[in-house]
Write a structure and sequence with these properties.
Elements lengths: L1 E8 L5 E3 L1 H8 L5 E6 L5 E6 L5 H12 L15 H4 L2 H4 L3 E7 L2 E2 L6 E6 L6 E10 L1
Antiparallel strand pairs: 1-8, 2-7, 3-5, 3-8, 4-7, 5-6
């Protein structure tokens, strides 16, 4: 298995696209599976359509499900930080994608994204692991 770790700055937006990084990692690796893992307790990794308003829709949905003004028991950090620790329950910490001829087999509109509402930690580590098939 081949693994790399990259650092991503995610402070500016809720959704940070990683599709290009995924493609670069898979390039030249043949057939297999790629696992993308996010070793953080306050962010998640997902597949979604981007550029069509879906990012704003996701932000609205997260705000409805996990409002920042709730009295969370987990209260250190910036206001509403307790919700950041619940986000990975909704947006998981990893995805596995099939790879053929060095290309991730994503659907037409699927993009790999980092979902991060935690403004206290702007730098995230993302691990890409390739298992040849």
């Amino acid at each position: 298995m081949e693994t790399i770790e990259i650092t991503v700055e995610s402070a500016a937006e809720l959704v940070t696209e990683l599709t290009c990084e995924l493609g670069r990692f898979c390039s030249g690796r043949g057939d297999g599976l790629v696992n993308v893992f996010l070793p953080h307790a306050t962010a998640g990794i997902a597949l979604m359509e981007t550029g069509s308003g879906s990012e704003a829709d996701l932000a609205d949905a997260i705000d409805r499900l996990l409002p920042t003004d709730r009295p969370y028991r987990h209260q250190h950090g910036s206001p509403g930080h307790g919700r950041d620790h619940l986000l990975p329950c909704l947006v998981g910490s990893s995805v596995t994608i099939p790879v053929q001829d060095g290309r991730p087999l994503l659907g037409v509109w699927q993009r790999l994204v980092l979902v991060d509402s935690n403004r206290d930690n702007p730098l995230r580590k993302v691990r890409f692991s390739f298992l040849a098939g």
